[in-house]
Amino acid sequence: MSDESQNRLGTPTPEELREQVERTHDGLGRTVGAPAPEGDLAAQAKEKAAVVREQAAAVGEQAAEKAAVASDQLREKAERAARAVKDRTPEAVREKTAQAAAQVHEKTGQARRYAAERTPDPLLEKADRAATAARANRAPLLAGGALLVAFLLIRRSRGRNR
Known about the structure:
Elements: H1 3-8, H2 14-33, H3 38-88, H4 91-118, H5 121-136, H6 138-161
């Protein structure tokens, strides 16, 4: 069989094969070397962001579940501890404690009413302003108080050393 007879049967000639390889090679070179279209990059970024959001949501759900479980366990342990203390405390002691708490609550209310009735209005206004200023400036007041305590302790210790 000659080359011509093979061509009639549908087999390409060596030259046709070379042209086909070159066309394929050129096409692949353009495809691989070409930058990806912007739409593809944006779509890929959106897909990646969606995956990350889903993962973050899953992690958040897991954290919330673990926190709920830990909270329930802590609550159960606290309730068991309270029951154990209550069970081990004699009834007489619990009654005395309840009476003492009621008395303290009553006396505190009496003292508050007495102070409110006996304190002059200008003094109440000044005390209210001072309390408001103290709440607004807690850090400097705490630092000043700590400094004063430190000064007094140093002075006291020096007085003992003499």
